[in-house]
Amino acid sequence: MNQTELIEKINFNIIQGRMTAEDEGFDEGLEGQPAVTELIEQAVEAGIDAKIIVLDGLTGAMETVGAKFDKGEYLIPDMLASAECVGAAMDILAPLLADAGVESKGKFVLATVAGDLHDIGKNIVAIMLKGAGFEVLDLGNDVTTGRIVEAVKANNAQFLGLSALLTTTMREMGVVIKALEESGLRDQVRVLIGGAPTSEAFAAEIGADAHCRDAFHAIDLLRQMAA
Amino acid sequence: MIIIGEKINATRKAVKPMILERRETELIELAQNQADAGAAYIDINVGTGTGGREDEVEAIRWAVTTVKAAVAKPICVDSADARVLAAGLAACDGHDAMINSVKADPDYLAEVLPIAARHDVPVICLAMDLEGIPKDVAGRLAACQTIADAAGAHGVPEAHLYFDPLVLPIAADATQAKVTLDTLAAVKDRFPAAKTVMGLSNVSYGLPARAQLNAAFLAMALYAGLDAAIMDPMDSTMRAAALTGTALMGRDRHFRKYSRAFRNA
Ligand code: B1M
Description:
The complex is a heterodimer of chains A (227) and B (265). Chain A has a five-stranded parallel sheet with strand order 2-1-3-4-5, sandwiched between helices. The termini of chain A are far apart. With 227 residues, chain A is an alpha/beta fold. Chain A has helices spanning 3-16, 36-45, 50-70, 76-97, 120-131, 145-155, 171-182, 200-206, 215-226; strands spanning 107-112, 135-138, 159-163, 190-194, 210-212. Chain A has two domains: 3-99, Orthogonal Bundle (Methyltransferase, Methionine Synthase (B12-binding Domains), Chain A, domain 1); 107-226, Rossmann fold. With 265 residues, chain B is α/β, with parallel strands linked by helices. Chain B has an eight-stranded parallel barrel, surrounded by six helices. In chain B, α6 packs parallel to α7. The chains are: A alpha/beta (227), B alpha/beta (265). The structure holds CO-5-methoxybenzimidazolylcobamide (B1M). Residues 59, 62-63, 65-66, 69-70, 76, 79-80, 83, 115-122, 124-125, 161, 163, 165-167, 192, 194-197, 212, 214-215, 218 of chain A line the site of CO-5-methoxybenzimidazolylcobamide. Chain B: Its EC number is 2.5.1.15. Chain B: This is Dihydropteroate synthase. Chain B: GO terms for molecular function: cobalamin binding; dihydropteroate synthase activity; metal ion binding; methionine synthase activity. Chain B: It holds the Pfam family Pterin_bind.
């Protein structure tokens, strides 16, 4: 299997929601065929760049899953099955994306905002940040504004990353920034936001420092900020 | 849930001539249809009630050989005669199989358990003894214990025992469904490695709207610890109850089977 075929297979199996070979998929009769875990291992062994696997294999697949959910073709468990696959893939890829031994570039608090349970994207960002040399404090998902502000303060963090995947919860990011201002912390911390419904315009509107399209964009932006 | 397809049973009017006249195509079709409908095992019972023991031995050889060659599913050899079971298992000849069934009868256990051990196959164990079906949980559990002890002595592992708590018609005694369910739970508790199995339809005998009772009973039995059912896999009400109960018990990962059956319903 060449690189394109392998990435396509990974993509297909994430959409099918098959984590390991014995798993059933959305469609019938796939049991026994290599699934995401086995294919990612193959890809790593074949020396395919982990960054390419994440961008072409994982992210693209989850977009397809979202579109299918949108059309009513996928149900919540179908979506969760795919999400689980991405988690398993990232467990394998994390050490490759993180080049260990770099000195700390600063403390980075990361959270998915209150009311929002989507954490796949944030988890990828966390891994990339660690790989880029940041000390990451991942607060998890559905994190209240109070806890976020407290964590920034207690850790004297220089960076805050906020993730939201719902048009209803993205508003909470603005609330966090307001709370930082009210606590007198806004000047010590750079706020970067991300998540599918967010945009550069939205970041400007709520007073965030930057909007990240994806995890790699976040690393680029941080590099520019440091320069 | 494991479905054991019950349709190849010579006591059924449609099946009897199929066996007696060796109608190969029809037999294969009946097995295949059950497999397609989700049966994990194909039960074969050739006891037509006509002819002698030798006829049954011949019939089970033919039926097993015929089904085995055409349908890629394990066969559940079903007879109350140890010689028929032995012949059926021999005909399986390595093809996955199961024995249906034994009860707490020491002599019979001594005949059948060695067959199970030799072929390394699971055995359905009825929670009854020589006096019949005990009316209470303690009695049924005692029968199960007798079988489990004998199985241990003959080298049949506990994981190969499928205990059937048995069900009596509730029309005659309304407490009996609960006795069965409580026995299921007690068996699971006492023999954690063993599996449980049941033929459910007896529960509703003599009452109207039997499908409804059977389906509710199946769902309750799944909660009590049922692993397998001997049933008609083509019965859509029962299939729905099996899929629904399994999903509600959290035993259908990502609701794959449930969603596949009903997502366009
Ligand atoms: C520095 O800080 C940074 C920097 C960059 C950052 C960053 C932070 N955060 C993200 N980034 C960026 O970098 C990441 C990596 O490159 C990227 O992250 P992303 O998260 O964008 O990308 C991930 C790698 C892959 N993407 C994902 O993981 C999201 C995929 C989709 C399919 C999705 C999933 C998987 C789930 N979901 Co939900 N889900 C959808 C999603 C559809 C879609 N196309 O996005 C979406 C977001 N969901 C939606 C909905 C409606 C819902 N979901 C819900 C639930 C779920 C699951 C739990 C089943 C599951 C999440 C599991 C999990 N552990 O995360 C419910 C809400 C739950 C809640 N309160 O949060 C529920 C309401 C469904 C329901 N009816 O219950 C839709 C939102 C619609 C809207 N208008 O807001 C949706 C777009 C699907 C759809 N097409 O309808 C970038 O955005």
